[in-house]
Write the structure tokens for this entry.
Amino acid sequence: MAVLPVLTYPHPLLKEKMPPLSPGDPQGPAVLRDLVGTMDSHPGCVGLAAPQIGHRIRAIAVDVSRSSRPCENHGLLRLLTPQILEASQWKVGREGCLSFPDLLANVKRAQKIRLEAFNEGWEKLELVCTGFEAVAIQHEIDHLDGILFLDRIRSSKDLFERRNPQAAV
């Protein structure tokens, strides 16, 4: 489990769509360990995607139980090739990103999602996630598709300077 530097915008990898992994690929579980180690080194971080730490694969780690906001959650999720199957209950909320340490933005996201993915043992999962956990997963899956949270804002009025850049999540 390595702690890797988090790439910041405008690094070109952040705008690339990541290729799918073949089930059983040993690179997947190794990258998941690095994602968790890197998340652990950033207090308040609730999610990270492989391209943010320089890996060109479809892998994310999300753990909203680390947040100061109490919410329903599944604990630490380590997901390979996650795919959202259904999304509903859309709402605008404030988001931040370690790849944009000085910014926050209002982004419209589904408050309920159904997704499928593989865990670190390459077992297929199907999950229903709600609230903040659903939002965090969508944010990280967007990273896998080269979509940044700023790509989802409606106007410059939805963009804010972060008061405490050390608290980027």
